[in-house]
Amino acid sequence: MQSNDITYTNGLGELLAPLLKIIRATGFFEAFVFMPLMTILSVFVFIRLKRRLKGNGTFKNGLQKKMRLTLLVSYYSLCFMVTNVTAVAFKTLIVQEMDYKGTPWFINLVAPLHFYILSVVLAYLWLIRRNLSGLTDRLLCMYIQVGLIGGYYIGIYRLMNEPFNITDPTTGMSGIFFLLWFGVLNLDIGIRLFRQI
Fold it and tell me: What are 21-42's pLDDT values in tens digits?
């Protein structure tokens, strides 16, 4: 799975090789390039989402109205994820762009995992934009729930297995953040799944 000086992590990387070479040549895969650009894009995605939420009754009544600010922060985090996870998913199709020393056994799974995370986030954004209570919405809730269970696992794993350092938020400290964040999202999913409209 090598082309010139680029090694691809899996068949999808090989399939997208022409596009990935162009993107890599621009320097986009450097964190100091894609993070600011994708963060700015996430703000625009959130502004559009927030406008939609005003008209679809998401915060009209009930617990969602009381938790409006908390949910808006969580919804922005989803917008941030949809843009940045997209960039990382494509970046991780190239071995040289990954941050691992050596070649771990799971290297060909990193990009597909990011694409799966992206699919869960897109499903969640579609769910909140629709704000309905039909069969499609209930199926979306269940699909998202599977993703949240994976998120809980990562939060617990980080909390139990990584060093706890308050100055480094990527260590065990992030486990606490993940558990709280997924808890808020899970509450929102529960409300959407069991409400009657």
Answer: 999 999 999 989 999 999 999 9
